[in-house]
């Protein structure tokens, strides 16, 4: 193994196959670039049409959730409750969101019909990429940690798009044609945060998990949190920005991702009222200590500081890099 390979092997990485997370999915080992070419077509005339919409785990990004919940005219809270399931990613400790498949023999997508996808123009990024897989590693290059992005083909036995297709695409052309490049741009900073979290030694506690879930997937609740809690007393936001994120959901999503990068110590992009922040942290610690004592007393144990009760706390107490 070369020195560069050893460095790459030693770093945490998050592979995101944005075309297939199917169990045993036949991912081709050949590493592709944006200039690599493939022959493929998918349309109602292809004999396997919609077969790829079954028995698959579709990971959702914040922009996926935003587009889908707007298409269905649902609040983010209702969309998450009705159409998704969540799981904790092992390497980062962060919550991931997946589309909930139907409980039938095929595990079919809730939006697939015999005519195709009922939300096609707002389908998730993973669906747009198929049959191309996308992966990102964090590697060391020239003394810096950078993203190493590459692609691969997903060739499943049922897929006839490679055989019946006539058009040849570069990966870059396919991304543009499927509007996947736009989706990549919308969630690039979010995915970067997801991967970089694996490089930090800080434990992922319930408060940070709750903050990540709220700001990533439930924008309606996040908006209420920003405007109806003490958030704006701690985080100093100009009025123009407040007006934008109150009225524009895409601006709110971008703000939420920016705030996550701040709260997780990735970048220093906000100013805070340090005195208010200190007061909030002190109050939070007092509440947690009181909960610990109450729990110990209820259990008949001496209040000696052992056996603390986990608490989700308030995400606003995570003031960011300087807290």
Order the strands across the largest sheet as they lie in space: 2-4-3
> What string, H for helix and E for strand, traces the elements in order?
HEEHHEEEEHEEHEHHHHHEHHEH
Low-confidence stretches: 1-24, 300-313, 319-323
> Termini separation (Å)?
41 Å
Say how many strands there are.
Answer: 11
Determine the strand fraction and express it as a percent band. Answer: 5-15%
Instruction: Specify the number of helices.
Output: 13
Helix % is: 40-55%
What is Rg?
Answer: 22 Å
Mean pLDDT rating: 81
Helix/strand class: alpha+beta
| Global geometry | globular
How many separate domains? 2
Your description of this structure?
Helix 7 packs parallel to helix 12, helix 8 packs antiparallel against helix 12 and helix 11 crosses helix 12. This protein has 13 helices and eleven strands. The protein starts with a helix and ends in a 25-residue tail after the last helix. The strands form five sheets. Strands 2-4-3 form a three-stranded antiparallel sheet. A two-stranded antiparallel sheet has the order 1-9. It is an alpha+beta fold. Helices cover 41% and strands 14% of the residues. It has two domains: 197 residues, no CATH class; 106 residues, no CATH class.
What's a concise summary of this model?
This protein is an alpha+beta fold and 323 residues long. It folds into 2 domains: 3-199, no CATH class; 218-323, no CATH class.
Labels describing this entry:
single chain, alpha+beta, 3-stranded antiparallel beta sheet, disordered N terminus
